[in-house]
Amino acid sequence: MPLYAELHRHLGGSVVPRILWRYFQRQTDPLTHKFADYDDFEEFYTRSRNTLDEYLELHTLVEHVQTVQTLPYFIYRLIRGAYIFENLAYLELRYTPYLRTSEQLSQSERIDQMAQIVEIVGQASQVQDYPMVTSQILCMHARLPYAVNKAIVDLAAQRKDYVCGVDLAGGDAHYGERLAEFVGLYQYARSLGLNTTGHLYETSDGCYPELLPYLMRIGHGIHIPLKYPELLKEVAQRQQCLEVCPTTYLKTGTLEDIYQLKVVFDSCFEAGVDIAICTDNAGLNNVRLPFEYENLLTQDIIDFEQMQACQDAAFRHAFAWPHQQHPASLLTGLLKNPRDEVVAANGTPRTKD
């Protein structure tokens, strides 16, 4: 049984449609009146969009209900599904904590409440029945003011017990006018000893080489091999890993066909650039991580050897994985020589009959 590491999963987009629909029904949310039944809602929630911005609008559907009171409800179900149906051994959840605070508060009060959000997410992620290593990545946001984004970086540095890194989200096409500001924030994050990733080169409008030197991993990054393959040498030298989320690019209209990713994988493997395969928004995309691997295999985009390399890369580049080895290696040690010996009740080994 393979065990997986998920490096790029958004808290907002991770709620599967059935869980979200049941929540809306129990809360008698007016949204349910817009749909005839669950099937109608699922079709709306998971269908493809024309652009990344249109796709990201769906995050607001979930963000406004992920509050101090409800976050444990959603996270418990997220962890349960990830453990049972996806065989995850490691999960990094990313989100913008400011967008889970109360809109009734002032900006400074919402900044203060972010610490409570991080605590709630951290506590709710520790589910004894479904043991896996979890950590948080806090997302700065392209549409939030500088003061909020800096506070997010400061909070990440203060709560390294729960937080393993920072990200920049909100649509990579919107960075341009504030590029110097975001460069400064990443410089600040690195000065605090924080791990960094960022949504970059996801779309053809989000290609900013100025940000690349400050990232340890690259969120998506598919337009580096697709449009700027000359950058792959630098990416390899920095030992940066691409977080590739195959289904997302079809859902956002970024790619027309999944087979276009073959250029991405072939170019990266040739250049020595690691790729971690991820889901991005498992709920919105209606996909689980093992399927992303299987689909790439059946579409002849990668082979089994490359699949294993991506699985290994995910654990190697995980910001908070506490072991030097892939979990399969740990299991091998536990299960060593199971055919040759069994342990007697008194603890002495005896030959199996």
From TrEMBL:
* Biological process per Gene Ontology, one example term: hypoxanthine salvage
Q: Which domain of life is it from?
A: Bacteria
Top EC class of this enzyme: hydrolase
Cellular component GO terms, alphabetical: cytosol
User: Which InterPro entries would you find in this protein's record?
Assistant: A_deaminase_dom, Ado/ade_deaminase, Metal_Hydrolase
Q: What is its EC number?
A: 3.5.4.4
One annotated GO molecular function is: metal ion binding
Is Hydrolase a UniProt keyword of this protein? yes
List required co-factors.
Zn(2+)
Keywords on record: Hydrolase, Metal-binding, Zinc
What family is this protein classified in?
Answer: Belongs to the metallo-dependent hydrolases superfamily. Adenosine and AMP deaminases family.
The protein depicted here goes by the name adenosine deaminase
